Amino acid sequence: MSAVIGQSERKFEAHVPALTARDLVLLRIAAGTATRADLQRDVAPLLAPKFSGAEFRRSAELGISNLIGSQLVAETKGRLSATGKGLQVAEALLTSAKAPCATWADVKLALVLRALRTSDTPAIRKALQRVEGLAAIVLQDHFGKSTGRAQSPADLRADLAIIALERAFGNKIKTGFKKGAGLPAKPGRVLAGQLFKQPREIATDGKLIVHLACEIAGSREQSLDALELAVLRGLMSPKDGTDAPPAQPLRPQCLETPRIARSPTPKPANDRAPISEIAPPSLRLPSPPDMPEFCRAVIDAARPVSEGWPGNRKAFISLVWKAIRNTRPDWGLSEIAFKGMLAEAHRSGQVELATADLKDGRDLKSLEDSKILYKNTVWHFVRVQD
Fold first, then answer.
1. Average pLDDT over residues 41-55
2. Which of 10, 39, 103, 172 is the most buried (most CB within 10 A)?
3. 137 with 127: CB under 8 angstroms?
4. What are the helix and strand counts (H, E) for the chain?
5. DSSP helix, strand, coil percent of the chain (3-state; round to 5)
């Protein structure tokens, strides 16, 4: 069988702008109030394995600070709740849902509808409660078929068999070989089994649909919860490199007699080579630090620019950020990522932050550039222990 993908087949990925960690945090908070432990339990699995537990906590804290600053979320005694404006923004993210999303289960269902580009009808909701129904809609969406209803395993198996034949014969059989034109169940499953990465035969139509959908969605288990989680992760995952320009083909090795390299003409020691002859520096990929290394660098950068008296020396966060940016470009940190890690370091007790006296207007720009909103407190300084 040919491995060429037919024109109707789609890469399994989000068909709308991917949701960010901040969007998911807002959606979870909007589905009733939530604590940070609730966010870790409910939202973190949707971003795994792209985000580790620590990375999610940093992203969540940064998202919470941003949401509070935008007046979309309020915090009272450690519990987060969405404001009226926040509820409107959350509803706009769930355009496919007709019923109100009062619980986190409702939100996840709306996200599945969004990921599979299907309508919110009673029949679809009923189909999504069974692994065979969810698998059918996954395959219908993947192969470019209507998702208005979930096809039965037998009907979908027949369609998959024709898709496999179209792959093999270059889409030249549509007029001569239509659905129901005499394909028995077992030969149909054999043909549909050619759509797996490693073609194989499945015993029943239901298992065929579920196994193929799990492979396409990236689920290792053939259960409803695992397949639903894979679909949701597909909604959040960024696009792969399929849009990148194709790599240049390798040139065939020359079979001619190798030429003898001539030694270069000697140049004076003070002769500068043209720019085109200067070898470009080797490219290095950014390597973010771990938390202990980050904290040591922050304290070292804060100490020379700190002010105050012994025992109460503080450095503007903006000055510390400039020092880190200039001395550690290999980390590849943005200012937002830096402040997020700094907030996490403060939360874990490895770095101590301090707030400014708002009556002191000596350097308003540095105060504005330094502020980090964290748990209803605005931090401006890194405290330096003498």
1. 87
2. 39
3. yes
4. 16, 8
5. 50, 10, 45
Look at residue 13 and tell me whether its pLDDT is greater than 90. Answer: no
* Cβ atoms of 322 and 382 closer than 8 Å: no
Give the model confidence (pLDDT) of 26-38 as tens digits: 999 999 889 999 9
* β 312-316/79-82 pair status: unpaired
Q: What is the per-residue pLDDT for 56?
A: 86
Residue-by-residue DSSP string for 160-229: HHHHHHHHHHTT--TTTS-TTSS--HHHHHHHHGGGSSS----SSHHHHHHHHHHHHHT-SS-SHHHHHH
pTM of the shown model: 0.58
CA 16 to chain centre: 13
Instruction: Give me the phi and psi of 194, to 5 degrees please.
Output: -75, -10
Question: Using CA atoms, how far apart are residues 153 and 133, in angstroms rounded to an integer?
Answer: 9
Rounded CA separation 116/217 (Å): 11
Fold of 291-384: Arc Repressor Mutant, subunit A (1.10.10)
